[in-house]
Amino acid sequence: MQQQRMDLMTVIGIILGISLVLGAIAMGGSIMLFWSLASVMITVGGSFAALLINFQLPQITMVASVTKAAFLSEVQDMGELVRLFVRLGQKARREGLLALEDELETLNDKFLVNGLQMVIDGLDPELIRDIMETEVTATEQRHKLGQDVFRAWGTLAPAFGMIGTLIGLIQMLAHLDDPARIGPGMAVALITTFYGSLMANLFFIPMAGKLAIRSDAESSLKEAVIEGVLSIQAGTNPRILQEKLKAFISPQEREEMERKSKERETQGSEEMVLDNA
User: Domain limits of the chain?
Assistant: First the structure.
């Protein structure tokens, strides 16, 4: 039901952004003019050090997994999810809620499995909703922490770029009598601001935005699962259940789901004609 695939938009955006910046630099001179180890130490090293102060170690170590989530997306076929709930609803009405226990091993969505297990165990609907919504809230908080790390880094990087600018200007002003020292000081002053702005606006802030979108999509999916689980427990008619879950699907996804449904019906009719021939 869920598939993991590379988010090409994230990859294309980063590659395109870097390529355009490097291309613009190359059109005006040597790219090596924009390389400064001192600037990297100030912007990258300094902003990361401030990040260590702002967050706890476990929160920092989760950056790797959070970054991976920005490049890999969990693709959920909402149409397939709706069809699954319709099938489960039909089975529950026909054979009883206990019959759903046979379906649990075939499902790979832990959130859905836990919800159905509580239904099979006969827990109160309000208790089930409370437990599942609490899990949704906890997941949102974990996602928000990852977003906060990138947003904080996006704020700190330009700030340390300005610190590097001040360092470069001080070094330059301290050696106005030595023309050979003015150039390196001015380079540090300008390149650190460039590095900080590039890091924040091409990487960290967009990453936080992408993770926020992913979090909203996952929360919406989990809300649909909650409604589906509780509707099955209430014995809702599968047709009504289907219409209720369609509220969580975008108009484009609804059209695609209806198109696939019509294709399956047409294919089924053709197979019946061939069998009868």
Answer: 36-262
What is the tens place of the pLDDT at every residue in 153-209?
999 999 999 999 988 888 888 777 777 777 777 777 889 999 999 999 999 999 999
Is residue 36 classed as helix, strand or coil in its secondary structure? coil
- Please give the model's pTM, rounded to 2 decimal places: 0.78
Instruction: Give residues with Cβ within 8 angstroms of 242, minimum separation 6.
Output: 82, 85, 86
d(CA 28, CA 235): 70
Query: What SS3 state is found at 4?
Result: strand
Q: CA–CA separation, 67 vs 208, rounded Å?
A: 10
Distance CA 104, CA 86 (A): 15
Distant-in-sequence, close-in-space partners of 86: CB < 8 Å, separation ≥ 6: 238, 239, 241, 242
Contacts for 234 with CB less than 8 Å, ≥ 6 apart: 125
For residues 112 and 105, what is the distance between their CA atoms, to the nearest angstrom? 11
DSSP H/E element including 74:
strand 72-76
Nearest to 86 by CA among 244, 220, 263: 244
Nearest CA to 227 out of 253, 213, 247 is that of 247
Q: Which phi and psi (to 5°) does residue 124 adopt?
A: -65, 140
The rounded Cα 59 to chain-centroid distance in angstroms is 17
For 115-159, write each residue's pLDDT tens digit: 999 999 999 999 999 999 999 999 888 888 888 999 999 999 999
